Design the sequence.
C-alpha cells in the first residue's frame, strides 16, 4: 500500500501516477505531486503493485485505479493479470482490492468505458482483448468476454496478432482495439446488457501493410482520431464515422525528420486539451514530434521535433490544463517535464526531472486530495 504524506495544497498542483516495469517484490507504482507552474515533481509515495504494472487508468471519480500486470504467467496459466486499487482520498495512496486474470499473455493497455462499468484490456502476446465488469465497490469481476484476433503482417514483428490498445469511442457505443500484428483497428459494439464485445463484420480501419498500428486517440471534438504506427514511424489522421463505427484516412505523415537514418519505433500519441496540436513519441530518434491540427479538415502540419532528454520515450502525457507535457523515458529511468507554448504547440524543457525505474505509463489527474483538505 502507498503510504503517501499529505502535502501542502496549491491550485497549481496535480497528482501523477507512474506505472513501471518492475519485479513483484519491488515498488512499482509511484505517486508524485506535479507543480504546473514550475514543472517540478515531488515524490509522495510508492506501492508494490505486483510485476510490471505497465499501464494504468483511473475511474472518472478518481476513487479507483486499475493496472495491467504485463506478465506471461498468472496463477500458473499463460496469462497476465489486471489489478484494482482503492485510492485514499486524503493522500492519493493505493490499496489493492483484487486481481483477475487477463486471459491473455502480456496485457499492455487498459481503459474504462465511459460509464465506469467495464475495464477493457488488450494483451500483446495473447493477441486478444477482454472486458471485465467493475463491481460497485471498485473490485474487478472475472472477464465477461474476450475476443481473439487472428492474422499476421509482413514485418518481422508481425508473425501473430498483437493487441496493443483498446478504448471506447466518445459516445460509448463502440470499442476499438488496435492490433500491431495485423495492421488492423478492430471495432466492437459495447453490449452492456450481455456484458459483451460484439465484433463488427469488418475492421474499423486497415493500416498500410507493415505499419504496425499501436495507439489510437480521439480528438476532443469527436469527429477526428489519430493513429500512431510503431513499425513504419508514421501517424495517420482519421475521420471518424460515429454512426458506422469506422474510420477513413485523411493523411499519413512520417514522425521523423527527413534526414534521420537510424532505427526507430513509435509509441504514444496525444492531442492537446484545446484540440489544436498533436504529439507523438519516437524511440530511437528519442523525440516528440509536434503537429498543428487544422480544424475541421483534421490535416496535420509539422511544427517541430523535440529531444526528450532521455532514451526510449515509451509513454507521455499532457496535464489537464494543457500547460505541460511529461515524458517517461524508459531506458534512462527519468521523467522530464516540458512547457507548452499555447500559440505554437512548441515544447521547452522546464529543467525539472525525476529519476524513476523504468517508467512506462504516466497518468496526471486533478489533486482530489484537496477536496478533503
Sequence:
Amino acid at each position: 500500500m502507498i503510504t503517501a504524506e499529505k502535502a501542502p495544497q496549491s491550485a497549481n498542483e496535480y497528482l501523477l501516477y507512474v506505472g513501471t516495469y518492475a519485479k513483484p517484490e519491488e515498488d512499482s507504482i509511484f505517486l508524485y505531486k506535479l507543480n504546473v507552474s514550475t514543472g517540478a515533481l515531488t515524490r509522495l509515495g510508492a506501492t508494490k503493485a505486483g510485476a510490471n504494472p505497465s499501464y494504468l487508468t483511473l475511474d472518472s471519480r478518481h476513487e479507483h485505479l486499475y493496472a495491467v500486470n504485463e506478465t506471461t504467467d498468472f496463477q500458473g496459466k499463460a496469462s497476465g493479470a489486471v489489478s484494482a486499487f482503492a485510492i485514499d482520498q486524503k493522500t492519493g495512496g493505493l490499496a489493492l482490492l483484487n486481481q483477475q486474470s487477463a486471459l491473455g499473455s502480456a496485457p499492455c493497455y487498459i481503459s474504462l468505458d465511459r460509464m465506469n462499468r467495464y475495464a477493457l484490456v488488450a494483451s500483446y502476446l495473447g493477441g486478444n482483448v477482454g472486458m471485465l465488469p467493475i463491481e460497485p465497490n471498485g473490485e474487478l469481476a472475472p472477464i465477461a468476454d474476450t475476443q481473439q484476433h487472428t492474422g499476421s503482417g509482413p514485418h518481422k514483428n508481425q508473425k501473430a496478432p498483437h493487441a496493443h490498445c483498446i478504448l471506447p469511442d466518445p459516445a460509448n457505443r463502440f470499442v476499438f482495439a488496435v492490433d500491431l500484428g495485423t495492421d488492423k483497428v478492430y471495432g466492437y459494439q459495447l453490449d452492456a446488457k450481455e456484458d459483451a464485445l460484439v465484433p463488427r463484420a469488418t475492421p474499423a480501419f486497415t493500416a498500410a501493410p507493415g505499419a504496425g498500428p499501436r495507439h489510437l486517440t480521439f480528438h476532443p471534438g469527436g469527429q477526428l482520431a489519430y493513429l500512431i504506427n510503431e513499425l513504419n514511424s508514421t501517424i495517420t489522421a482519421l475521420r471518424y464515422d460515429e454512426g458506422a463505427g469506422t474510420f477513413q484516412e485523411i493523411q499519413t505523415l512520417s514522425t521523423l525528420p527527413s534526414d534521420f537514418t537510424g532505427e526507430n519505433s513509435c509509441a504514444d500519441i496525444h492531442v492537446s486539451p484545446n484540440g489544436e496540436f498533436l504529439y507523438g513519441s519516437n524511440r530511437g530518434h528519442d523525440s516528440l514530434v509536434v503537429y498543428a491540427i487544422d480544424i475541421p479538415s483534421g490535416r496535420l502540419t509539422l511544427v517541430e521535433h523535440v529531444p526528450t532528454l532521455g532514451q526510449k520515450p515509451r509513454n507521455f502525457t499532457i496535464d489537464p490544463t494543457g500547460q505541460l507535457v511529461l515524458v517517461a523515458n524508459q531506458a534512462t529511468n527519468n521523467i522530464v517535464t516540458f512547457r507548452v507554448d499555447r500559440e505554437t504547440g512548441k515544447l521547452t524543457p522546464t529543467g525539472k526531472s525525476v529519476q524513476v525505474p523504468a517508467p512506462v505509463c504516466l497518468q496526471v489527474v486533478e489533486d482530489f486530495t484537496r477536496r478533503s483538505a
The CA atoms of residues 224 and 239 lie 5 Å apart.
